[in-house]
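User: Need the bound-state model for 2'-deoxycytidine-5'-monophosphate:
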Amino acid sequence: MSIQNKQIAVIAVDGPSGSGKGTICQLLAKELGWHLLDSGALYRLTALAARHHGVELDDVEALEVMAEHLDVQFKASDSGKAVQIILEGEEVTHAIRNERVGEDASVIAALGPVRRALLNRQRDFAQAPGLVADGRDMGTVVFPSAELKVYLDASAEERARRRYKQLISKEPGASLDDILNDIKARDARDMNRAIAPLKPAPDAVRLDTTQMTIDEVLQAVLDEARHRGLR
Ligand code: DC
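Assistant: Bound-state model below.
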């Protein structure tokens, strides 16, 4: 098992679905000119690859092999603005974001062998000049020596409202109640699993974003980075 590359600065950002991690991490990486690890995408990709290959979500051995040998490329688009995700030669950038894949990802993420198989792949993202790592166990397991650990949270109701706003233009039938129930179920699974459960690292800076704008959260994290000499 490779250990964290201590030469490279890492900002680890953890938190539940809808806490704003994804957006904040993208903005942070852009602002600092650092690499970005979207670790949730790796769990989603493993889940999607399992579906493509007809692997059941309780077939731990086959899922471990799938995670170990995941054939994935993260390609900067021509405009350089977005990242395209290619799984086994097929573009899946949008396909991995649907709710079903998210559910499947949350199920397989509870399996120790799958998590171990993805560990080194995640640590390999730590390249100069630095890495912003987005996930559930970035500060606790994957990058325990990160220079800055942030735990973003928001009430389940606010997170459901945010998800509903994103979805409603694409899925006019989306229901706020259903989304809230899904978020609560996902939280319970991610927080109560035996291995690498979602929880703040003891030394994480905790931010409740319920009443904060994206820019306020970004500035708060950048201030913490500045205090640690990371800017
Ligand atoms: O952040 P996301 O919604 O893309 O993550 C999808 C699922 O993957 C989430 O329910 C929990 C899991 N996950 C995890 O267990 N550990 C991570 N570091 C990232 C995601």
